[in-house]
Amino acid sequence: MSANATEPTAVCPFCESTETERYSQFGGEISKRQYYCNGCHTVFERIKYDGATPDTGR
Asked: What is the C-alpha separation between 49 and 32, in angstroms, rounded?
């Protein structure tokens, strides 16, 4: 992701609120980030994805 690109809004999977903020750069796996929901006060993980199609080598 480029330095001036904005991060997509993380929607809470529990209450569907968009009032979320990044809690940690890394979650349970290096490919995930942790977010905190200000609506239901829950921490959740989301897979990091910059929107580009990943190169699978095929």
From this structure: 9
Instruction: Work out the burial of residue 35: count CB atoms within 10 Å of its CB; fewer than 13 is exposed, 13-18 middle, 19 or more buried.
Output: buried
CB within 8 Å of 33: residues ≥ 6 apart: 10, 22, 23, 24, 25, 26, 27, 45, 46, 48
Q: Which residue intervals of 1-58 are DSSP H helices?
A: none
Give tens-digit pLDDT for 12-57: 999 999 999 999 998 888 889 999 999 999 999 998 876 666 666 7
Q: Mapping DSSP to helix (H, G, I), strand (E, B) and coil, where does residue 46 land? A: strand
